[in-house]
């Protein structure tokens, strides 16, 4: 059995392996419900595709009238399964194909901790990488090319989240990656852009800076007053 893995919205062609079907009959069945979905009959010059009992193949199938190969276009999850081609000619033969359909992956979203400052949060940046409505995927944090942490889900459609804590001064490259068998999506963490120091640190920086400036202004004012008083004293003594 030949296997194919495709993304939703893509197309896949199932090749019969026949160069040209000169005579006889060829049928395609969707094995899950044993429904006939395509037919070639050379004797009657019949070439047709069917929608299937529930209509899932409507406007989805293209049949090569020469080779009998079948193309499924704009594929969806309901088209996943096993397909069988049967050729009835001088020799009867059959061929099966397994098609696995994967949903298109969302781009991971980074959520940053907006809680109030604490002694630790002034030095560390807490990030949560999240994706929603996913199945058969892995979600991972990378530091450069090395995996720091990872979580996986099988066939259930759920939401996944994976935390990460880094220091503000960290110069390493971090990225959150979601992947399945055939594709991946990546969101990079820019610490300088995404991780701002805790507002408490900023407050203390402003407070200290203001205090220093205020002290300097006070010293300058006292110094100027002292010079002024000394000058007045000198002028007064000169008059006497």
UniProtKB/TrEMBL annotation:
Keyword Protein transport in annotation: no
InterPro entries (alphabetical): Ig-like_dom (IPR007110), Ig-like_dom_sf (IPR036179), Ig-like_fold (IPR013783), Ig_sub (IPR003599), Ig_V-set (IPR013106)
Entry's transmembrane regions: 202-225
Keyword terms, alphabetized: Membrane, Transmembrane, Transmembrane helix
Ig-like domain residues: 106-192
Protein name from the UniProt record: Uncharacterized LOC108181196
Species in which this protein is naturally found: Danio rerio (Zebrafish)
